[in-house]
Structures are given as C-alpha cells and as structure tokens.
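Students often ask what a 'structure token' actually looks like in practice. Rather than answer in the abstract, let us consider DUF2786 domain-containing protein, a protein of 418 residues. Its sequence is given first.
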Amino acid sequence: MPDADELVANALAAVRGTDVRQAERQLDQLMVGTGAADGTAAVDAALLRRLVRGLGRLWPRGWQPVDVDRITGRRLDARAARLVRAAMAAQRRDQAEPVPAWWDDQLRELAATEADGSVLAGWASREGLDRADALRAAVDTLALVESLPPIAVLRPPPGTSGAALPRTGGTARSGSPMLDRVRALLAKAESTTFPAEAEALTGKAQELIARHSIDEALLAARSERGDLPGGVRLSTDAPYAGAKALLVQEVAAANRCEAVWSDDLGFATVLGWPADLVAVELLYTSLLVQATAAMLRGRAERRPGSGRRTKVWDESFLNAFALRIGERLRTATEAATNAADQAAAETAGAERLLPVLAARGEAVRERLDTLFPGVTRHRLSVRDAEGWSSGTSAADRASLDVGGARKPRQVPGRPDPR
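Now compare that with the structural description of the same chain:
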C-alpha cells in the first residue's frame, strides 16, 4: 500500500492531468488512506506538509501572503483561500528564519490563524465539507500553489539576510494619525450622495497626503540610508480589469510612482516611495468605489435605445473616468509641488524640493527597469462615445490634487477613443 506522501503525489498528478476518471480514482485512494489505523490522519498530515512546503517556496519567488490569498480566491474560491490562510499560519509557526514585522502584519490582516489539532480537518469542519469534498478542494489548492510562477520580489522575504537584498521602503498601513484622518475623509466621500461634499472631503484628504509626501521626501533627502523604492500590488480583477489597471496607472503616475499590469495574475504592481505608495493605495481604492457608483448612476440615466451593450458602455465610462482623473491629478499636483518648492527655496538654508523629487523619480524608474526589464505598453480601445463622455463628466466632478506630476509611461497605456 502506498504511503501518505505517495498517495498525495499521485492525486496531485492526476488532478493536473486530463483523465477525469483517473483523478477521481486517486481521490478515492486518498479517502481510503494508507490502510493503517491512523491512515486518515497520515493523509491529512502529508497534504499539509506539501502545502506548507509549497508556500515556503513561493516567498523567495516574490509572493507575499496577501498575494497568495488574492489569487487563490480569484482562481478557486473563498473556501480555498481560507485553507491557504490556515496553512500559512502553520508555515509561520514552523518558520525558523527571521520574519519581518510587515509579514506578520499581513497574516494578521488576513486573520491567518491555525486552529488546534489537524489543520485540514479543522478547516473542513468550519466549511461544512464532507471528507471527499475537503480532499478534492485541498488537492486543487495544492495544485494551484505549486503552479504559481515567479513574480517581482518587492520586499525581502522571510529568512533573507540584509546583504542579500537591498532594504526597500514599505507602505504605512496603520498607527499614523494622519493616515487615519485620510481614511476617515475618504470613507465619508464614498458614502455621501452629495457631489460637492464628496469633492470637499476628497480634496482635504489629498491635501493631507500631499503634505505628508513632500515632508517625507525632504526628510529622506537629509538621511544617508540606502533604501530602494518599495512596491505594492493592487487588485485588478474582472469585471473591467483593463479599466481598473488604467486607473491604477493614472493615480500612480500622478504620485511619482510606476505601475505595471499583470493581467493574467489579476493585479497591478506599483513601485514608489512609502508615502507615495500610501497615496496610491488610498486614492485608488476610494476612486474605484466612486467611479463604480458614478457608473451605475450614469447607466441608469442612459437614453432609451442607445444601441450599445451595457458592458461596452461601462468600459468606456471607466476608461474615460480614469484618464480624466489622471489629467486633473497631474495638473493639480504640479501646482502643489511647485508651490512647495518655492516655499522651500525661500527658507534660509533649505534644500530645493524639485531636485529631490527628480532624484527620487529616477530611483523609481531604475527600480522598474530592474524588476520589469521586458515591460511593454498595452493600448486600450474605447468603443462607446456616450460612455466616454459620461465618464469624463463624472471625473470632472471629482477634485483631486495629491502627489507629484509626471507623464504616465507604463502599462496599460492610454485609451484610443473612437
């Protein structure tokens, strides 16, 4: 009789193949187990061992806990994502190498906790699965984890010595009174039904972000730390993934960041300095909510018999919204940056701001070239003039003036309205 590890390997190979009957036979073998008194527990332990090992191999290949959680939910389902969280907690428990604080922060945000006893049995019980369905889902999850490709290493993974990878800036997610104020303002902007109130709230949030970004740039210029720009990945799942990627691109470019879209993996990678990455995360999340709400209102106001499918109209609306937001962001932030530079120049002994920002922008571009040497542009098409006009008007009603100004140059590129 095969041992538990061999049974798992056989089931995994069968699931990856095209013979459905063979896959079911191998899953039946998993159900039977090794034939020993503790055969079921041995199979569960073997599945967990291999899943933990697979996760451990992902970390040096660029994956972070939030990334694995996102793609598991995207390609499988929320139930599989919860199994991965439990396995990540088990993997963290046995992690012998040093683990950075931001790693544990991500696990806490995901509520990745390990229950007492068998991880697989506990997960199946919480999900209300019988053993056959639990084993099938576990093998599918393992197959996904072991199939994930390498991606850009944005931050040193657990067990990486400081000499192996340069230190990179991360993003501040909590503990900052300024960021708490920004989040509160944006939440109010998203919930209000009065455009003027949303504009005022968003404008105030952006003002706080802009001040913080400039202050961070000047403080960093006075230090001699050898940090590199950091990065963050933002979800661009369907529907309208291309329009979401364009919104990421426009917000990133206005905040001195670079964005690259990985359509097959469902995210855009944004590279930049910590304060600017915070701005992109907060603004993208808020603007996506506001754009979706505006799109639904605009959809309800469409002329009867307009002749275009709703999906085509929606895509055109969101693309136009993203593009117009980017233009307004760059215009407003260029003025804010120039004003801050003038104020710095008038302060005795103060360094000029624009050279500092230019040097930081160059560092971001160098980081982009290192991590994504083969990146290409992708041009989106806008196929509905009414949707384009409505999306542009909706963006005009949002007053945004945060970050810095620079022409976008990365994926997905500018739409071609027609």
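One point worth highlighting: Confidence is low (pLDDT under 50) at residues 399-418. Ask yourself how you might have guessed this from the sequence alone, and why that guess would often be unreliable.
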